[in-house]
Amino acid sequence: MKICVVGTGYVGLVTAVTLAAKRHEVVCVDIDKEKVDRINRAETPIFEEQLPELLKSTVNAKTLSATTDLKTAIQNAEICIVCVGTPSLPNGDIDLTQVEGAAKQIGEALKEKKGFLSIVFRSTVTPGTTENIFSAVLQAFSGKKPREHFSICYSPEFLREGRAIKDALAPDKLVIGREDTIAANNWKMVSSVGCPIIETDFKTAELIKYANNAFLATKISFANELGNLAKSIGINSYAVADAIGFDPRIGKQYLRAGLGFGGSCFPKDIKALVAFAKKNNYEPKILSAVLKTNDSQVERFVHLAEKKAGSLSGKKIAVLGTAFKEGTDDIRESQAIKVIGLLLSKGAKVCAYDPKAIESTKKELGNKIEYAGSIQDCLKDAELCLICTEWPEFRIIDFSGMKNKVVIDGKHILEKKNGIDYEGLCW
Ligand code: NAD
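Above: the input record for the complex with nicotinamide-adenine-dinucleotide. Below: its predicted structure, written as tokens.
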């Protein structure tokens, strides 16, 4: 089928290449011309495993191209998939500027379109947005009627950065909110996934996405609370978590205590859900506590650094890992970046290393810190090392170049601890 994907960030680009790999004719649309040019040159604007190979093969096979011209892309498309961003406003509420803007532009383009268009919204949005914004704006700007000229469905994305291609090709579920079956059936056909499909109304589909992320974030904050308590009384919380993980009602994932969650989804989605609940006159106690515990892990980590190394002022501190997790160059809401901010406020001299996220870190922090090209450069003459991301290469490290071999592990990843003064954040 002829598909147009609007918004080619982490979700849009992965969606586009995986559909193009299935031999659909895919056109990516983005307002960012630099991103569009890079995609057309088969250069990935982000780091994600398997993405470079898939992008190259689909661009070469001419099943994938990119443009800033949404109008033409819509004229030629049978399906339009919307994956624009939904960041947080300063008060934590969801910022719908990008989705509203995209809906208006698609509505304008629909006005002149010959033929039917199925529209699939994938951005994470609070309950009511598909009906009150997407659907309403499309009708207002196109002057056309749903079901006669277009059909919409809401199908949230659940991929995890770092394994996004695998998740997009083999998701654990496909959730589809719909009012009619046209867009939903076309979406099922093109995505051709062999997983359970949950078809429901728009609002339920919207809440499923938030419930999914909120539950995982809650599990992480629970593990962190347990880890903090266990450490304070000299118990290994990882042994406790491993044991309870055998209970199938609990499961082993997302139970490793540490620095907490970051990234472009969990923090902003939980904040948006809290704000949404309050707007609907419900005070969410658990979710607010999940965020509080998460924030406090950063403070505990830096406090532990001070306890081990004394005043941090003027000291070189090596920060290993700035990405919010391994396998990505994404530093949005990364706990590591927050740790660095706190270290800087205490007068420390920070040197950071990350195997993939140095460029994105430079864009965020500029010359506030130093950047190292290798683990060894980062550690050289450092008085303290803080491990902030669980990159596999941080499992075994030679710390001999450090001035004082004090290491604090925020991710419980270091395997060889001999010859250093080691302390885990939660053990
Ligand atoms: P992103 O910020 O990386 O990408 C959004 C892209 O949309 C940008 O390239 C931006 O330039 C483009 N854009 C904005 N307005 C546009 C317009 N009018 N026309 C064309 N392009 C436009 O965002 P992301 O991380 O890919 O997330 C997209 C959505 O998916 C969000 O709602 C997010 O919550 C959700 N989501 C993200 C992930 C993840 O791991 N990143 C996982 C699941 C769901």
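Notes for the reader.
The mean pLDDT is 97.
The pocket of nicotinamide-adenine-dinucleotide is lined by residues 6-12, 29-32, 35, 83-86, 98, 101-102, 105, 123-124, 157, 159, 161, 264-265 (CB under 6 Å).
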